[in-house]
Every structure is written in structure tokens, then in C-alpha cells.
Amino acid sequence: MSALENENIICISSVDWDPIWTRKQQVMSRLPKSNKILYIEPPVTLLSPLKDPKSIIKWFTFLKGFRPWSKNIFLFSPPVTLPFGNKYRVINRLNQWWVSLFLKAVMAHLEIKNPIVWTYLPNSVDLVDKLGQKKLLVYDCVDEHSEYSGFIDKNTMLDMERQLIDNCDVVFVTAKGLYDSKREYARKIYFLPNAADVEHFMKAQRPDTPVPQEIASIPRPVVGFVGVIQDWIDLDLIRETALSHPEWSFVMVGPVAAGIDISGLQDLPNVYFLGRKDVSVLPSYMKAFDVCINPFKLNELTDKVSPLKFYEYLASGKPIVSVNMPGVSAFSDIVEIADNKEEFIQGIERALNEDDQEKLNRRLERASENSWESRVDFMMSRIIEIMNTPGHKHKGGKHVVN
């Protein structure tokens, strides 16, 4: 398969490069090393420290300029911006102009010209045209951004996203719900769910993978969760399940997002919060799990989500119990899927008592079909097809063939 080689790529991301890797880092780190990649982290606003005091450090990160992560990947954290950019378009335009001043200086220093602009943020519609000539505009849509909570106006976000999509040469979406809601605005759009670092998470099945003492000492069976504990995680469902089976240990591996109240779980003797762990050791923790859980709240946001943790669970080989969301429905033959609390509890009971080697082998087989390598190959092939279209050029955001 053809690879994307020797290109300048600007990735406008919705998350910092560290500490939690998501689709953005997985994709960028797997593109061929001959590409020069500038990864733009999301800026913080003047009000961000009120919600998350730790974010104040990002006020100063941009003073470091760009930071090399590898020989071909460079990171840049923009300067602090005004709040309410996702509520009022005029503020977003001002913010993106402000960011562009610094970004263009970094691009000049790194000699980045005529780049492929690869964005994950709808509000970047007011940034991309300020960066000069570009070869291609790619939007990788991983969430229904208009359904986020916080300082967001739904209509403003939708208007920005629709304009961005109209300007794009190609759009990728992670969920069928996103495909259905975006396709009428896109010239080329592809459904491409999340995936996993399959080889890495399969280490949970290896005899030589050590189990950390802090989880090895927790009473079995262990019902495990891995991921950031955000407001879309159904903590009430976990609490009710933990109360119904006090003999089960519920282990939460991952950081708690700012503003999330976990006191209802901390009060329970069979629930354990182990905090954030480096991705390198996650298979060791998952090896200690008897069951993995995917306890999303069911709403407009999660209806259009491809849960990344689900694919990592799958690659670990462990039994999985999930709420019934579109992003996992295709795996109903190998995963316990629940419509309500009672079915969720029953699913865990079956996973603990009825799992076998044949089911394990089927999970690992399906995991191998959903690797980041396969996803990146697909993206590269679609992008190369567009660039190789006779007479193609990117003009004013439009896919043009002379």
C-alpha cells in the first residue's frame, strides 16, 4: 500500500501530546518518519485555571516555543486565549488570528510550507486559512463537539464545523452517528472507528507480563476500568453494581477529570482508584482484571462515540461488559452488551462464570482486525488518492480538479 511520504503536516489537535494518548497521537506517530509533523496542542483560556488549576502551567508552556518529540514530530502549545470562543464566533476569529501569529513564526522556523493541515477541532475553521497555502485539508472527527458541556453554544459549534467540512478535501469520522450527521456537508467522508495498539495490549495475555503489587493485592474477582474519568462515565451505574456485589472489587485506572465528583464511589470499600498509569504499564494492570467494563452514560454525545478503551480491552483478551451504544454494537457476538443496570450486572456475572478459551481467541482475532496500523494505512491511501487525482489542487478550501 502506498505511504504518505515527505510531506509537511500540521495537526491541530484537541488534546495535549502527553500524558494520555488518544487517536491523534496514535495516528501522527504512525505516519512515515519522512514526514515533518507539527502537532498543535489546544490553547487554554484566561478562565481555564478556574476549572482546572493545573492548566495554568500551559500559560507558560508556549514560551518554550516548539518542542521536538522525535526527529520528525514537533509540539507547540499556543498562547493563552480569550474565553467563550466556542460560544461567540467573533471571539473565536480573534483567538485564531492571535494563535496564527505565533504558529506562522514556528512554521517559518521549521521551514514548513504548503502543508497538509489535519485538524480535530471545528473552531480551527477560522485558523486554517490564516496559515498560507496548503496542499490538503483533512478533518478527523472523533466526537459530536456540539454536545460537549461547558462554555459552548451548540449552533455556533455546528456552524463552524459545517463550514470546516465544506472546506475539507476529506473527512474521517469515528462513529456511524457522526457519519450520518456530517455526510451531507462533505465531499468525501469515510467511517473509520478507533482502534488499539494491538501488540502492546496483547501483553496482558503473556505469562512474563508482571502484575503490579498495588493491584495484585486487591481481592478477586476484579472488575476493571481504564481511562479518564470524565462526566460521560456513568459513575452511578458503577456504584449500583458495586453495591449489588460487595464481593467484587472495582478498580478504576486513570485520572479523574477536574470537577468530577467521585465521592459516591470513594465511600465504598470495594472500589479502588489507582490514578493515572503510563500507557507502557497498562497491560500489566489489565492482566489483573477478570472483566473490563465500558460504562458510558447514554446520551447525544456518547451515541456518536467510538470508545477507544473498548478496542484496548479487546486487544487485552479480557471479557468485556458494555452499555448498549452504537460504537460497540458490531461486537455483540463477543461482548456482553447491557440495556440497563440489571443486564449490566448479569453481564458481569456471565463474564466471570462462563468465559472460556474459545471466546478469548475470538476477541483477540477481532482485535487484530482493528489496529492503528490498519487505520493509518486507510487514511494514507485515501489522502494519496486525492493528491494523485489529475489536476487536483486545494483552492480556497475546495477540492478542485482542472
Tell me what the structure shows.
Helix 1 crosses helix 16. It is built from 16 helices and 16 strands. The chain has 402 residues and is an alpha/beta fold. The chain folds into 2 domains: 8-194 and 371-401, Rossmann fold (3-Layer(aba) Sandwich); 198-368, 3-Layer(aba) Sandwich (Rossmann fold), CATH 3.40.50. Helix content is 35%, strand content 17%. The protein has an 8-stranded mixed β-sheet with strand order 3-4-2-1-5-6-7-8, with helices on both faces. A 6-stranded parallel β-sheet has the order 11-10-9-12-13-14, sandwiched between helices. Residues 395-402 have low confidence and may be disordered. Strand 5, helix 5 and strand 6 (136-141) form a beta-alpha-beta unit.
- CATH superfamily assignment of the largest domain? Glycogen Phosphorylase B
The value of Rg in angstroms is: 22 Å
List unreliable stretches of 5+ residues. Answer: 395-402
Report the major sheet: 8 strands, mixed
